[in-house]
Write a structure and sequence with these properties.
The complex is a heterodimer of chains A (about 140) and B (about 260). Chain A is an all-alpha fold. Chain A contains 5 helices and no strands. Chain A is about 85% helix and about 0% strand. A 5-stranded antiparallel beta sheet of chain B has the order 3-2-7-1-8. Chain B has a 3-stranded antiparallel beta sheet with strand order 4-5-6. Classes of the chains: A mainly alpha (about 140), B alpha+beta (about 260).
Chain lengths: ~140, ~260
């Protein structure tokens, strides 16, 4: 399940290269900041999904708001001559790191769970095969 | 079957399972983010429009990235030189056939000489520009102890001013549209990397060139103010300078058809 958004991400990149709308000049820089914001939201969403805390309203508003704020900060920083977009990138970049590490931990835990379940499964199978033959048939199918 | 479902209820890890309602929104937004990424991507076609908005450091990294293309260019350049030589031979051969074409060829060769398309030979000077190898701890001082692209430009300009007829920088002929540009730690001469020591050869009257370049207040004099070892200049009785091997194609400039 977790692979679907990642595939979608790659698909989006390919799509963008195929359609090719050139973003030039300073808009490209703002777009770069917006991309970081988008990545931050997507990984945040993945993480909350894995933790089972996902709420689509929070996710959608967060995604849009993050991108708009990042875009605005970058633009505003340029207007007043302060590189505010560094702050946006710093915060969102570090959040991407945190989210990715949490996702990794969760996936590792899941993997261990699956192994543990398999072990229990085989133990159970062993117990049941001592008794009835018909029950064993159902489990293996 | 009942055994299996009963097993899942007992399974202590079942509580970790979540519903999949997140897949669609997250995937959609991931798609959008991916799309935006490729929009923000600095590709070759819009690179020049994007470069000036980047950090200087990032900018020079991008420019250095394109230097690999410069290596490809190198082979093309060699091929171009070869073809131009062949062209010259061909023109000479045609010229042998008749007098009219001989005079035509003569003017053609003069044109080629003027636009640096032929190898040339003659007296002149060799100017060597070198970085100061032992540098002090002073950062500001060490900046001027390096040969920059502007130094090369100024020396070439001064050589032209003093009457040089053909100039090469590190064995690259200075042609009609030759440019010098600073990228990171190296200088680009028509997209070819060079670094200190920069050896500039100029063909012309060697005494005039030698005297003119050593004029007090000239560019060499200014560089010598930092360190006299940065400059070496010597007159040469005879040397060869290769033909210009850079690309020359006119996309916009045309000869007007109606003459005033």
């Amino acid at each position: 399940m977790i692979y679907i958004p990642i595939v979608a991400l790659i698909l989006g990149v390919v799509l963008g290269f195929l359609i090719k709308v050139p973003v030039t000049g300073i808009a490209g820089v703002y777009m770069g900041v917006a991309v970081i914001a988008g990545l931050d939201s997507v990984f945040g969403g993945l993480r909350s999904a894995i933790e089972g805390k996902f709420r689509s309203d929070v996710f959608m508003t967060g995604f849009v708001a993050n991108i708009v704020i990042a875009f605005f900060l970058a633009w505003f920083g340029d207007r007043i001559g302060v590189n505010v977009y560094f702050v946006a990138i710093l915060v969102m970049g570090s959040r991407i790191f945190t989210n990715l590490s949490l996702i990794r931990r969760q996936m590792l835990t899941k993997w261990h769970d699956v192994r543990e379940r398999k072990r229990l499964d085989s133990e159970m199978k062993a117990q049941q095969s001592d008794g009835e033959g018909s029950a064993q048939q159902t489990i293996t199918s | 079957m009942s055994a299996v479902s009963g097993f899942i209820v007992v399974n202590p890890f079942a509580s970790r399972r979540t519903e999949n309602k997140w897949v669609l929104p997250v995937s959609l937004m991931a798609l959008l983010t991916g799309f935006m990424t490729s929009l923000a991507w600095i590709g070759n076609d819009q690179k020049n429009l994007r470069l000036k908005y980047l950090d200087p450091e990032l900018r020079s990294r991008y420019s250095e990235g394109t230097l690999d293309l410069g290596k490809d260019n190198e082979t093309l350049r060699n091929e171009m030189t070869m073809l131009r030589d062949e062209n010259t031979k061909f023109q000479n051969a045609v010229a042998k056939n008749s007098n009219a074409s001989a005079s035509l060829n003569k003017s053609l060769q003069e044109q080629k000489l003027f636009s640096a398309l032929t190898e040339v030979e003659g007296p002149g000077v060799v100017v060597k520009l070198k970085d100061v190898l032992i540098r002090g701890p002073d950062q500001a001082a060490s900046m001027v102890q390096i040969i920059h692209d502007t130094d090369v430009v100024l020396v070439v300009n001064e050589l032209k001013n003093t009457g040089a007829e053909a100039i090469s920088v590190n064995n690259r002929r200075v042609g009609p549209n030759t440019n010098f540009r600073c990228v990171g730690t190296t200088i680009l001469v028509d997209e070819v990397k060079i670094a200190s020591p920069v050896i500039i050869r100029a063909i012309g009257d060697s005494d005039t060139l030698f005297g003119g370049m050593n004029l007090p207040g000239g560019i060499l004099d200014k560089i010598r103010e930092t360190d006299a070892n940065m400059i070496e200049i010597e007159p040469v009785q005879k040397m060869r300078i290769p033909a210009f091997s850079g690309a020359m194609s006119f996309k916009f400039a045309k000869v007007p058809e109606d003459k005033k």
